[in-house]
Amino acid sequence: MEEVRQVGVVGCGVMGAGIVDVCAQAGLDVRVVVSARPSVDRARARVLKSVDNRVRKGLLSEQDRDALLERVSFTDDFAELRDRQFVVEAVPEDEEAKRLVLKEVDAVVESDDAVIASTTSSIPITALARGVERPERVIGAHFFNPAPAMRLVELTAGLLTAQDARVRTEAFVTEVLGKRVVWCQDRAGFVVNSLLVPYLLSGIRMLESGFAAAEDIDAGMELGCAHPMGPLRLCDLIGLDVVTAVARAMYEEYKEPLYSPPSLLLRMVDAGLLGRKTGRGFHDYRR
Ligand code: 3HC
């Protein structure tokens, strides 16, 4: 089995940038594909921000940061993924957009041993691999936010994923990236979001109904249950647009009211109050 040394990441939003950081930190050569030239600068800035986070915390020296960044290159040309052994798709949580990217990646990546992983947080992998020429290479590898700090990656094989791709992915994530993996069946939401999303939405419904204030809902879970962040602060970290997309995908699959996004969440997304990334969500980060 060929050792994974060359990785591709498609999409460089909050999750994509974190995954690029994780891969470069592991000493890999990382090629980042974004949709258009002007996005390259934004992508580079996001990766730098993620890496600088560890410099600020004293976890990484400036010299190591510079060496890490040298291992990362940016392009808007999918063809530059042709020699990659592992490619992570990290574009927004939209089934059609993800499917198109997976098709494009599959068309250019040459090695039959390569793995094409989607970091979807909720959409079944078998559905995403529809239309892909070699679906046996497609797998789900769901990273958590912030990717450099969170130790878990959820793995999901689609109905057509080859056993070899499963073995290679688990070995790569555990031995090279140093994360713990959990496996689950190919159902919307996988393990973590099946448990987390109803909880986050309950927190939002509590606020929406006037049951308690945002600070108190968060303090309740932070101080009462030792969670690092309460549900509303965690929504702000994940991004309210992402929480909405994940909830919708789960509602679409199960038709359970507990996955239905509350009106307050939908209105906040309409208003562009997406959380930390836009400066305001349930809390204000502009100071
Ligand atoms: N490397 C890079 N970025 C890091 C980082 C690291 N080691 N540690 C934190 N960050 C980033 C965060 O993304 C955030 O970014 P910002 O600059 O854009 O605001 C900021 O640093 C927050 O961290 P702070 O420095 O303010 O605070 P901490 O260092 O105390 O961060 C934490 C702690 C690791 C974020 C901790 O609060 C925590 O564990 N929170 C819970 C996180 C969690 O539950 N994540 C899972 C979300 S669910 C998910 O991702 C699934 C999805 O499908 C919905």
TrEMBL record:
| Residues engaged in binding CoA | S50, K57, S121
Q: Which NCBIfam families match?
A: PRK07819.1 (NF005875)
Indicate the family of this protein: Belongs to the 3-hydroxyacyl-CoA dehydrogenase family.
Q: Provide the 3-hydroxyacyl-CoA dehydrogenase C-terminal domain boundaries.
A: 189-285
* Record Gene3D superfamilies: N-(1-d-carboxylethyl)-l-norvaline Dehydrogenase, domain 2, NAD(P)-binding Rossmann-like Domain
List, in alphabetical order, the GO biological process terms annotated in this UniProt record. Answer: fatty acid beta-oxidation
Name the gene that codes for it. Answer: paaH
Keywords assigned by UniProt?
Oxidoreductase
The residue ranges crossing the membrane are none
Domain 3-hydroxyacyl-CoA dehydrogenase NAD binding, residue spans: 6-186
What InterPro entries does the record point to?
Answer: 3-OHacyl-CoA_DH, 3-OHacyl-CoA_DH_NAD-bd, 3HC_DH_C, 6-PGluconate_DH-like_C_sf, 6PGD_dom2, NAD(P)-bd_dom_sf
Residues the record annotates as the site (Important for catalytic activity) are: H142
Organism (species): Saccharothrix coeruleofusca
Q: In which pathway does it act?
A: Lipid metabolism; butanoate metabolism
Protein name from the UniProt record: 3-hydroxybutyryl-CoA dehydrogenase
Q: Name one GO molecular function term.
A: 3-hydroxybutyryl-CoA dehydrogenase activity
